[in-house]
Amino acid sequence: MAFPQRFLDELVDRSDIVDVVSSYVSLTKKGGNYFGLCPFHNEKTGSFSVAPDKQIFYCFGCHKGGGVLHFIMEIENLGFPDAVRFLARRAGMDVPEDNADREESRRRQRVLSLNKEAARWFYQNLSRPEGAAVAAYLERRRITRRTAMNFGLGASLDSWDALLSAMQEKGYSKADMLAAGLVVQNKQGRLYDKFRSRLMFPVIDVKGDVVAFGGRVLDKGEPKYMNTTETIVYSKRRNLYGINLAKKTRRPNFILCEGNIDVITLHQAGFDNAVASMGTALTMEQTKILSRYTKELVLCYDNDAAGQLATQKNIKLLEDSEFKVRILRLPRRLSDGEYVKQDVDDFIKFQGPAAFEAALSGSTDQMDYRMDAVAGKYDLSDPEQKIAYGGEISELIASLSNAVEREVYAGRAAEAAGISRQAMLTEVERARRKLRGQEKRALTRENLNASALRQPRDRAIRYNDLRSAMAEEGVIRLLLLDGSLAERCRALAPEDFSSDFLSRIYRQLLEAWSEGRTPTAASLGASCSPEEMSHLTGVLQRPEAPAHAERALADYIQVILSSAEKRRGTPEGDPLLAAVEKFKGDKKKKGYGGKQS
């Protein structure tokens, strides 16, 4: 919705960005700004800055930036209207609403209310004769009624429309059911329950709202698991199963499991810090949620090939993060003389909680796990494979930034391969020189391509006229620095700008100053996408000297007007004029005829 600008200005004024950000990120003051680890990407060295004078944040690593509203949008995974409401509640302000916005809010609340009623209905089915099969399944899996209650487990019935009928009796419409993803519509337009004859798992977010459901078959039917599709209240990338309970743990870490049953089994056994990533690989959005509650993750996946692959992927995602990552490797279980794969649920049942606690205490760090994975690929008794192992393991060790770590792990690798420590250190150093060379060449390519570095990352706002756009950015910086300079921009119209995005920002600044308002980067957020706001914040990081502001502004305006005149002088679509201009440009490049500009 379009909130009144004066309301947004007041909301931003009441929401100091340092206070808001510090409730999510540990900040340290350095000079006039605050710095910390970026909550939007994985890093070990803080490149995330908060400028209290400009009321903006900016990460020099991932280049996200903006005002306080955009920070809340990113960190809480909210749209702009919901971020406004979030901050308004924090600031104790009433939000002016329009009809369209009230309707969207009503739909969200309706779906959440329906999900809650459906979860209650599923749970009650466990005590009814129709839900006896699911209740018996829980008993076979040794899941107690108390645990079932804690997780809100339930039963969907062997019926095409039992849930549909039950919810209609409570006043929910077919449209409500479709919006929640609880029913499916066939080609003839008939609605029927999506979940039938399944053990039901409500998905509850950090706020305690039931946002979705998962359902597991009781036999060998397909699909084994079925989940709610994306809805107005649910995104699987932004939720973790069990997070509503795990966030209350007193344990120092979180255990990341493969499935819902694993999480439930661990909680029942006393490990109330277990969560699962909704049947998908771990996502950046999920790591942002986890970072609010812990800085240590224990990856605990099945010991089969799929589990090992998931472990490797998540290690890769987390390798430059603020998290300390450990790996809990479950041993294979001996059955009828053979070793079989084992998941968390099996381990707890056959070995018990004490054995799992011991395994948890002895879990290895990610480097040990990765080194073992590399060693497992080679027969180290074969000279040729031993050489190949040395090449791969030295590249892995060379990627470590700490020299002591490199020496320690090189020693372990040498011992595993049966070669001298010095030989392995030599290979690691050779790999490190190669890595530094690759990084240096990449940096050189970036520096040589300075124009590309000044371009917005988002292709939707790419500059067609880079020279003019650089001057346009300068005008915007100066107008945010000193509103009195707006009087000197009378000759410069928004239409003179080459960038539609910068033209829109310039127009907003002129309107704000003309209405007696003091615009800030944060107050411009209502009209900017997150990508636009990040780019604008990056633009504002570049310095402008207040002492030379008038001279700089005049120079910027001259460049913009000159570029605008050139663009107007060559009508788009005129092939003859375009060919003439290209010919002139080619002559200048070759150095004959005409004065060089």
Element layout with pairings:
Elements: H1 5-14, H2 17-22, E1 28-30, E2 33-36, E3 48-51, E4 56-59, E5 65-66, H3 68-75, H4 80-91, H5 99-125, H6 132-140, H7 145-151, E6 154-156, H8 162-169, H9 174-180, E7 183-185, E8 191-193, E9 198-204, E10 210-217, E11 225-227, H10 243-246, E12 254-257, H11 260-268, E13 274-276, H12 284-291, E14 296-299, H13 305-318, E15 324-327, E16 333-335, E17 338-340, H14 344-351, H15 353-361, E18 364-365, H16 366-375, H17 383-398, H18 403-417, H19 421-448, H20 450-454, H21 466-481, H22 500-514, H23 530-541, H24 549-569, H25 575-590
Parallel strand pairs: 12-13, 12-14, 14-15
Antiparallel strand pairs: 1-2, 2-3, 3-4, 4-5, 6-9, 7-8, 9-10, 10-11, 15-18, 16-17
Helix pairs in contact: 3-4, 5-9, 14-15, 16-17, 16-18, 17-18, 17-19, 18-19, 21-22, 21-24
Q: Could you tell me the radius of gyration in angstroms?
A: 30 Å
By DSSP, the count of extended strands is: 18
Distance between the termini: 48 Å
Strand order of the largest sheet: 1-2-3-4-5
- Biggest sheet: strands, sense, closure? 5 strands, antiparallel
Overall average pLDDT = 85
Helical amount among residues, as a percent range?
A: 40-55%
Overall 3D shape: flat
- Share in β-strands: 5-15%
* Poorly predicted tracts of residues: 571-577, 590-597
Total DSSP helices: 25
Task: Provide the structure class.
Answer: alpha+beta
